[in-house]
Amino acid sequence: MSAGGKGWLAVAGLGPGDERLVTPEVTAALGEATDVVGYIPYVRRVAPRAGLNLHESDNREEIDRARHALALAAEGRRVVVVSSGDPGVFAMASAVFEALEDGAPEWRALDIRVLPGVTAMLAAAAHAGAPLGHDFCAINLSDNLKPWELIERRLKLAAEADFAMAFYNPRSKSRPEGFERALDVLRTVCEPGRIVIFARAVATPEEEIRVVPLSEARPEMADMRTLVLVGSSTTRVIAREGRPLVYTPRSVSA
Amino acid sequence: MSAGGKGWLAVAGLGPGDERLVTPEVTAALGEATDVVGYIPYVRRVAPRAGLNLHESDNREEIDRARHALALAAEGRRVVVVSSGDPGVFAMASAVFEALEDGAPEWRALDIRVLPGVTAMLAAAAHAGAPLGHDFCAINLSDNLKPWELIERRLKLAAEADFAMAFYNPRSKSRPEGFERALDVLRTVCEPGRIVIFARAVATPEEEIRVVPLSEARPEMADMRTLVLVGSSTTRVIAREGRPLVYTPRSVSA
Fold first, then answer.
1. What CATH number does the domain located at A8-118 have?
2. ipTM of this complex > 0.85?
3. Going by CATH, does the domain composed of B121-247 fall within 3.40.50.300?
């Protein structure tokens, strides 16, 4: 079946889970698509309809998936590659460009767009208060794609720079001890009272947010669905009934 | 006029400009609000309707604006504080919590929510490709609220950590030479070919994106509406007809 007309490829972010965080831009692209390509649980978030082909693939097959999507677009199909969160943050956009750079020269002439989304750290921060309200960094703690030594070095420099931090993929199945080592690195630079937020299954019905000082943070507080936020030295907690509010003030005095 | 029922306060992100990047969650909150509070150009993005009070205030009045919003919610009104982008990234959420912490004790019992949005760096990255596809940091270059020495130290450590970087507020009116000094700091650590992206008026009809090597980056390429992205040492450019695509690969080899 041909899609008719000119093909295109959109790499779209579905946000962290809640459908009310999917942008109208992404919803419109899905409405015009002939094909949706992505990791199984993300494709399952797209409502099936007549004329829409859903292509589910397993995790860790990003490059094959990206090539498949580019080839479909080159055939004239209207293709949406779906990621959770924002596609440019530890998600499919880079994989698509890696496949594009190494792929058929004619792919470079394709209409390719990246549609931004609400990445998990922004939803986690919002639901905890405003812990990323001052300078911050985002680090993927998975060592599938980079050496652990680089992760440790980045963590140390980020703590010395007094950034607030967001850790994606804190506990990988293949290297569960990595997160414990990350906490050890933080403890060498940060004071014991430094605020750590464990945000699990953010923006889903199973959301759980837990706020602890670094001295009480334990590796088993994070699993594969957890995003971890670490405050800067100025991050504060406002106590109240129920869960406290965590925020980082806008100012740092001289 | 009383709003009736229980008041609440939502701190909402309108995204960088394009209305198709406003989340349905934010649209729904605006639909239920009795009062919208914010900096003039952001309040003007909200469609007026009967029963909705629009409270515009000038820039640099964040704390007064936050107190006003909290006081309205305490009176039983349904208040949305609007920010551009994401409210938790260099925007109003931290100001609201600062006002809350220093304010009337009963304010802590209020229903306060932060509604995340697409922050400017995610839209700029998406429209340039995927330059934030690996570990990255976000730094506010304005020295209104922190000493310049801290900014320089953070820049240097971030470059040593080989983060991709997003700079918010690169050129403030009050200290236009700051960005030139920031480029100088980068040049002490990064190679001359390091990719710099100037993304102006992102996600508006005036959007302009310019990609240059660090050696050719000039302070006057940024103005008050520009977000600057700097690649890591691994960031790549894919040449093609029209604007090139910039991306940071997912992997760093050992």
1. 3.40.1010.10
2. yes
3. no
